[in-house]
Each structure stands twice: as C-alpha cells, then as structure tokens.
C-alpha cells in the first residue's frame, strides 16, 4: 500500500501559530505553536485535560479556535486540505452489524476512493484475517485497528492519531509502532497525542508537552531528559508547570 506522497523532512505538513481556544474564562488552548514536517512523527504529551484533544479537533475543523492560525501543506484548514488528512480521535464510531470489509466500503464511497485500496489498508493494520467478521464481535484493540484502517484508507499525507495504542496487547503495540514508523518512512507526517510517555519515546522524532493549554516544552526527547532519564524530565516539567499554575 502506498500511503501519501513521498516528501522531504523540510516540507511543513502542519503549521499552527498562536492557537487559542477559550470557553468563557477557561483557556483550553493558550497560544500553542506547532510545526510538523513531512516524514516526521511528532508527539503531543501531557496529562488529561492538557489540551491535546482540543488541539486535534481544532485542526480537523471539529472545533473553531478563538484565535490563531492553522495551515495544512501551506493552506488554511478547509475541505480541500482536510482531504489530505486521515484521523482517529477518541473511540471510533463503528456499525456493529457490518464486517470490516463492509465498513471500509462505506468509507471508500464517502471519501470517493477506489474499493481496491481497502486491501492495502487492511493489510497495513494486519486485519486481513478478520475482514469478514462483524465489528460487534471485535475487541477494543481490533476496533482501534479498524479505525486506523479507515484513517489510512484515502492515502493521506498527514495522519492524526489520539492514543493509537489504546486497547492493544503488547504484540499489537509493537506492530502499531512499526506501522507509524513505516508511514513516516513513506513521507507521511504523523501527529500523535498520548499520555503514555514510554510509547511516544519509541516512535517520535520530536515532542511537545502541554499542560493547561500551554506549551511547556518542544523539542527532542533527549532534550527533555534529566541525567538521561526522559521520564524524570517529563515529570519534573509537569511539577514545575503545576506549581506555576497554583
């Protein structure tokens, strides 16, 4: 399966500048900047409520930002740019009476892509053996795999995944890492949100740590580490940010 269009690390797939999202006096996002390049795996880290999902929904057009700008491949977010984006945010909504094959045929028709692309999407997420089973009999991990197959179906150039290893067993988690890195190897930009530092550390080229809607760190995982310990650096950062908020 060919996903996306091969690119270079210098191409900007996603650029977010000074993004704000306010709900009354609550600032879910408070001036976030972010750039993801083609062929890069970029991780959003932070505790629950940090603003990760809000940011992803804003860049997908599911929520309107209070202010700021979002560009996908150099163009403002719109119907044409979102056609180049695949996303899985929160638990995928699936029809329990349909098989994986039938589900993907529906999405292929909705996205206007050939049905023969279904085979590649199923193969990439290792679901060819389960394609004829009804979705209602799937485990949570299998539902997530199918959700990611849907996100990949239109061969997007930018993939957005919220907790991509959710519900997967250790073998599935390892396979998902391989899928993510293979996508980046084909020039696809991948944006991942997670609160699982260990998983992000295995696949991401750069990370951003959010707390209370603000950027606390952006850069390499090595730069986040304290005495070589990434986890220690991450939690020290959270403690410092929490003390500042109080």
Automatic annotation (TrEMBL):
Residue ranges annotated for the ABC transporter domain, each copy included: 14-237
Listed InterPro entries: AAA+_ATPase (IPR003593), ABC_transporter-like_ATP-bd (IPR003439), P-loop_NTPase (IPR027417)
Coiled coil: none
Gene3D superfamilies with a match to the protein in the record: P-loop containing nucleotide triphosphate hydrolases
GO MF annotation terms: ATP binding; ATP hydrolysis activity
The keyword Nucleotide-binding is assigned to this record: yes
Keyword vocabulary terms for this entry: ATP-binding, Nucleotide-binding, Transport
Family: Belongs to the ABC transporter superfamily.
UniProt-recorded name of the protein: ATP-binding cassette domain-containing protein
Organism: Streptomyces bathyalis
Top-level taxonomy: Bacteria, Bacillati, Actinomycetota, Actinomycetes, Kitasatosporales
